[in-house]
Amino acid sequence: MLGLVLVGMAVGYACAGLALVLTQSWLMALATLSLTGTIAVLTVAARLWISAESPAAVAG
Question: Which ranges does the record mark as transmembrane (predicted)?
């Protein structure tokens, strides 16, 4: 769970910084931080969920 939070923060803050430099708007930077952080967390969580082996395959 901590890994998901760190991924969301890393992606979100990088994109928010870029948005702040490009638009000079704190509101746009905050919206970008929220949106990209959420998308990053959901993407990583979905990838982990899909790639997990089913319990039946592990049990044999």
Answer: 26-50
